[in-house]
Amino acid sequence: MSNLTTLPDEGTRSAEEASPSWLREGVGRGIRGVRQRREADPIYQASLVEAARLYQRAVHGNRRALLDFEEAMTTSDFSLLFADILDRQVLGAYQDWPSTWQMYARRGTVRDFRTVKRFALDGASATLDEVPERGEYPEAAVVPSEYEYKVTKRGRRLDWTWEMRVNDDLDSFRELPLILGRAGRMTEDKFVTQLYASASGPNSTFFSAGHANIVTGNPVLSVDALEDAMTTLAAQRDTDGNPIFIDKMNLVVPPALEVVANNILNAIQIDAASGGGDGTGNNQLRVNNWLARRITPVVNPWLPIVSATANGNTSWYLIGQTMAGRPAMEVGFLRGHEMPEVFVKAPDSLRVGGGIGPVEDGDFETDAIRHKVRHVLGGVLMDYKMAVASNGSGA
Predict the structure, then answer these.
(1) Domain 150-390, CATH 3.30.70 — does that match?
(2) Which sign does the torsion angle of CA 65, 71, 77, 81 carry?
(3) DSSP 3-state assignment of 71?
(4) Which residue ranges are recorded for the region named Disordered (predicted)?
(5) CA distance 85 to 198
(6) Which of 4, 7, 41, 11 is nearest to 24 (CA)?
(7) How does pLDDT run across 67-79, given as a tens digit for each residue?
(8) Measured between alpha carbons, how far is 304 from 108 in angstroms, rounded to an integer?
(9) Where are the CATH 3.90.1690 domain residues in the chain?
(10) Is 182 exposed, middle or buried (CB count within 10 Å of its CB: 0-12, 13-18, 19+)?
(11) Is the pLDDT of residue 90 over 60?
């Protein structure tokens, strides 16, 4: 590899140092003792530093570094260096982004793959009319809202060979179920995001002028914009004209707005000109940050991916928490299969001496080892009166 400081060739080392076992030393077992014997080798340490820098650039999205990293992993010297960097930890064990959709979407279960219906009843909750003596009680109508969705099956299969398992000195074979399970969880997060976000920002069918749940002017995220969003939510009415009480809300933002959202909601005090001041300090109010008691920030890393065409890094959403009784959306799972399920193909070979071969030996024909993950889910947007959004474009 051209941009990696290589270990000295055998012509520049002593006979003991030039032995091929020097490079293979530590492969397949703990390397702490090997590393201690090499700490005094400045050439090895320089190579180790450069390898670590290359790995860091690759992890942070440098495409050139990623290509160099993949090429370097085919060389014995870099593999050894990389093992030192990771201390024999498997990449799949690194923590990924936590799942947050449960904070603003209702979780449901369905019995089968057929379309299910969800009903929401509105009406008949207006203030009561006065009834005169011997007068007839007025009748009120209940207005049902109907929503439909069905769950679908999703999955993936991974094939290993017996040779790969034997050569697996990082023990990543044991991480396969965990990796596949994480794929199922990320599928949930992306699916939910695609319900309320589109390629260009907020879902225009759900968030629209007709639904009165677009923040006027699509402002960038700020204290004033949050005030406008809360005012927009508070202006929603049920079919009887009653106000809809939403006590707790979630502010869903992309990673690019995480700092802004947390600065707003974690501020101790807010200078408010809306109490009669002109915003320049004259008659301006300084209040405790009551927004923090009502709003919880939620960072959704899928927003810039789903809204990749436009506004992925500027759109923000204020969604009422599901405890309000009028969920903005529901995500359903097949009953009895609510979590990602990971399977391994049973062995189909017998040893000559008797007994079924272990899974790690693979199948009879090809020594292949097969894992799969299955996850069943679906969902639908429901009450638009529980959410407002801005694409952050300022227009």
Answers:
(1) no
(2) positive
(3) helix
(4) 1-20
(5) 40
(6) 7
(7) 776 666 555 455 5
(8) 27
(9) 150-390
(10) middle
(11) no
